Amino acid sequence: MNGAVVGALNVLKPPGMSSHDVVGVVRRLAGLRQVGHAGTLDPGAAGVLPVLLGPATRLLPFLPVQRKAYRAEMTLGVRTDTGDGWGRTVEIRTDFRIPPARVGDVLAGFVGEQLQAPPAVSARHHGGERLYELFRRGVEVELTPRRVLIHEIHVVRILPDDPHALTFGARILFDLSCSPGTYVRSLCADAGERLGCGAHLSFLVRTASGPHRLEESHTLEELERAAAAGRLEELLVPPAQMVAHLPAFRVDEPAVLERLRHGNAVALEGFPREAPAPGMRSGPGEPPEPPAGLARVLDGAGRLVCLVRAAGAVNGGASGTWQPVRVLEPVGGGEPR
Predict the structure, then answer these.
(1) CA gap 265, 272 in Å, rounded
(2) Domain boundaries, the chain
């Protein structure tokens, strides 16, 4: 494969690999260096990891808000220094008996907007360095809480299935959907404190990231087989679909397309305009709000040529003209604009 490959892959990341490791595998399979992911997933977690290829990486700032959904398991009675099962045990509590209904009440209390401190081991930056790098060197930092939004939490199952009381080692399987930047490890640690027994995240799979769903994801083994058969491109989500939450102009005049590819503002109001794709969602149950004054330009075959912004909204441009802000197709075979 070569630099003409452009789009997004819905990758099923296995546990034990970092998101960067997955990007490295896709680079090798696609024969591209221009590859990136749209949202870090912890090494110990599995699930949906959108990976962008070629010029599609430049669409990242314009993607709809990627609401996340997870299935998680919380184990009671053990706290770790990382908040998950991969860390060092820092406390064990065995003398507790918690009514199962209490767990549901505590988890339901996290629904809504709140301030959440990140785990000590995370990819978040502090003073120009990743928190996990500082943690490995033994540097303690003050973890600044950030605002997150928990949309839904539902308890799926409690093991063992004791109707009377939960004791040491009990596991709670639950589903949640949340805003980007939410740490499920922190949620489990906070829930353990509210329950008075301590807890850690013992299992996590991301079931959705924006419009990408677990049931539609591809394992690395599937990607290997597709690449070997020369069919990797068949698994790509095309750029036009990646930003289908935006309205579109359908342009089939070569001269106008050429001006757009060179970054020139053009009048587009005379061309057919299409509404955002029906059913395009930023997450489970939530339609995205398209940014004002932003649109796609599609050629006659429906391929994304560029993203444009109403020129009147920037630099005092003339009303009715649209200025390219991302050009997907290269000019004269050069780098994409």
Answers:
(1) 17
(2) 1-63+212-238, 68-209, 243-337
Tokens representing residue 301 in the block = 């075959």
Each residue's pLDDT tens digit, 117-131: 887 766 665 566 665
Nearest to 10 by CA among 206, 231, 266: 206
Report the CATH number of the 243-337 domain. 2.30.130.10
pLDDT digits (tens, 9 = 90+) for 313-325: 444 444 579 999 9
Quick one: pLDDT at residue 99?
Answer: 95
Q: Which residues contact 270 (CB under 8 A, 6 or more apart)?
A: none
Amino acid, res. 22: V
Residue length of the chain:
337
Q: What is the 3-state secondary structure (H, E, C) of 219-271?
A: CHHHHHHHHHCCCHHHHCECHHHHCCCCCEEECCCHHHHHHHHCCCCEECCCC
| Mean pLDDT, all residues of the chain | 87
68-209 CATH fold: Pseudouridine synthase (3.30.2350)
Strands annotated E in the chain: 7-13, 35-37, 46-53, 68-76, 78-80, 89-92, 112-116, 125-126, 129-130, 146-159, 171-178, 199-209, 212-213, 248-250, 266-267, 273-274, 294-298, 304-310, 321-327
What is d(CA 295, CA 335) in angstroms, rounded to the nearest whole number? Answer: 22
**pLDDT tens digit sequence for 178-229:** 999 899 999 999 999 999 999 999 999 999 999 899 999 999 999 999 999 9
- Per CATH, 1-63+212-238 and 68-209 having the same topology is answered yes
Q: Which of the residues are catalytic?
A: 42
Class of 1-63+212-238 in CATH: alpha beta
Residue 45: both structure tokens together: 């977690």
Say which range, 69-73, 81-85, 247-251, 326-330, has the weakest mean pLDDT: 326-330
Torsion of CA 32, 38, 44, 48, to 10 degrees: -90
In the numeric block, which tokens belong to residue 227? 């690449």
Cα separation, 238 vs 177, in Å, equals: 26
